[in-house]
Amino acid sequence: MHLLRPLLLLALAGGPLPAAQAQTVWLVDAAGGGNFSSLEAAAEAAQPGDVLWIAAGEYGQLSTGKRLTLLSDESGPRPRIASLELVGAAGFQALHLEIRSLRLAGPGRVLIDDCHIGPGDFWRNFFGSFLVTNGADLLLSRCDVRGGSFATDGAPALVVEKGSTAQVVSSVLRGAQVPASDLFKLSGYGGPALVARSSARVWVVDSELSGGDGEDYGQGSSFQPGAGGAGLVVGSGARVDLRGQADDRLSGGLQNPGWPGPLDGPALFCQPGLPAPQALLGPITISGAVSACAQQGDPPRSFLVPTEREFGSPERRVQCFGPAGQAAVLATSFQSALLAVPLVAETPVFLDSNALAELLPIVLQGFDEGAEYAWMAPSGVPFAGLSYHVQLFEVWPANGLLGANSITFVLAP
User: Fold this and answer.
1) Closest alpha carbon to 405 in 276, 315, 313, 301
2) Which pLDDT score is estimated for 103?
3) Contact by Cβ (8 Å): 404, 301
């Protein structure tokens, strides 16, 4: 492991760690032991940039457009939130929570990290447990997202649509299984793990996508049909880039739970439409049929993942995977952005290039065992909610830079 200098000393490109902005850390406790017992009341009183430290318990719906950070004690159980709706909440961050239903709309980066999401209530499940729409920008990392059921069918875990951008890093997405009934038998279709449509752009890194199992009591006939859900559905104008290793899986659901058959769901299904959908597949394990819109990445492209750390440690670590011997750069910034860079076609830049903290030249070691790097982060109330962003770039002599995904670290009180 390579240990980098403490963040407080970084000054290679953009200067040292920015001064901690004045903010308030509010304690929210459903049992009444904090500043607020209601999450909605706390968010209404909070100012943009404030931190809501949430105690374990049950909480209702929250709808907000403010830049807030929602945290909980990562050593304890996750607080359970009925639903979370974010509209234009650029810079919003949620960590170590259980959220039954999540909706994200409007521009600006939102971080959802170390959360369990779904399944939501009956009506919300129709749109998926997690809906990202209307030009939203999501970084989803270390999360478990499960689709819910709607009527006799399973619903998606995650839907990204209408020009939105999403990075799915080190996460598990599972489409819903057809709901069971003890009173009568109904056939139905399993839900897809991920749906990307209407010009969405999605990067899936070091993650597992699996469709939900169906129920087919008609055994393939037109009477009571049913089938497994797709691992990934790509619609018109959408582009999905899957990067990872052999232990990362893309799979369709089974025709019936525990009973494979000819109506098993596809691993990848491309819906017809213009512009044509695209899916770039890395060296991951694929179980199920794959539509013609899929392309094999050649050569496989690099990616970046967070590494588990000891609880309470100020150390933050990442692993970099990519072609052995490939020159690369690790960049860090205290501002996020999604910029169009013409150096290489469709290269994403998730950092603000005008606010870089460090540029570290590295050489990638391969896909089997990534090169690991670590930062020593500050802690304490003055730094609560401050986040910094890390992105990996391959360096190509002829064509410039090729960006991989990014990850974000949030400092706790």
Assistant:
1) 301
2) 95
3) yes
The CA radius of gyration of the chain, in Å to the nearest whole number, is 21
* Pairing mode, strands 303-307 and 315-322: antiparallel
Cis peptide before 299 (omega within 30 of 0): yes
| Structure-token pair, residue 121 | 């209530």
How would you list the strands of the sheet with 366-376, edge to edge? 2-3, 366-376, 315-322, 303-307
> Which residue is it, tokens 């993942």?
305
Contacts (Cβ under 8 Å, ≥6 apart) of 282: 242, 243, 244, 297, 300, 301, 303
Are 80 and 108 a contacting pair, CB within 8 Å? no
d(C-alpha 403, C-alpha 349), whole Å: 6
Question: What single string gives the DSSP state of each residue in 391-403?
Answer: EEEEEETTTEEEE
Low-confidence spans in the chain with pLDDT less than 50: 1-17, 19-20, 182-184, 220-223, 340-345
Alpha helices, H only, 35-164: 39-45
63 neighbors 81 (Cβ within 8 angstroms): no
Nearest to 102 by CA among 143, 43, 49: 143
Beta bridge partners of 172: 144, 208
pLDDT of residue 298: 66
3-state secondary structure of 69: strand
pLDDT at position 147 is 93
SS3 285: strand
Q: What is the pTM of this model?
A: 0.91
User: Could you tell me if 71 and 23 are in contact, meaning their C-beta atoms sit under 8 angstroms apart?
Assistant: no
- Dihedral sign computed on CA atoms, order 316, 351, 321, 365: negative
Residue 120's pLDDT is 73
**How far is residue 147's CA from residue 157's CA, in Å, rounded to a whole number?**
4
pLDDT at 309: 73
CB neighbour list of residue 44: distance below 8 Å, 6 or more residues apart: none
Q: How far apart are CA 16 and CA 294, in angstroms?
A: 43
pLDDT at 341: 44
Strand positions, DSSP E, 267-384: 268-270, 278-281, 285-287, 294-296, 303-307, 315-322, 327-333, 336-341, 347-351, 356-363, 366-376
DSSP characters over 154-199: E--SEEE-TT-EEEEES-EEEPPPPPP-SS----BBPPPSEEE-TT
